[in-house]
Amino acid sequence: MTQENTVAYGVGDASFKAAGEYEGIKTLVDAFYDAMDVLPVAKTIRAMHPADLEMTRDKLTRFLCGWLGGPRLFREKYGPIAIPSAHSHMPIAEAERDAWLACMEDALKSQPYADDFKQYMLVQLAVPAERCRMASQAAAKSNT
Question: Taking the model in full, what pTM does it have?
């Protein structure tokens, strides 16, 4: 979906549809974790994840479906989640936040999405990425 369309990204299920719905989001998530496996900048964040990424991939796919305005598949299978607090136990600083976003940027490049949607996704995903960094930093301070 491009900006010439009458429905803007972030309204209703427009982003979910622009991402290719469940199958498109699953493809994005697979490309994201594939990037995490090979990008040197992602070595630290890859180590924060389990060796077997099957459940991790499923969780991110399901989360993004709801986050992009589609069905709340994460909640249906895993229950409610608050992304920043769910990641607060991890040591996330600027480098880790930026590595996560670099993996997503790499994954977006290979998707058949409109260019403006790819840019929209990066801008929008920077918000929870930063919130995870802030929650991690706050948790680290409270534990000292």
Answer: 0.90
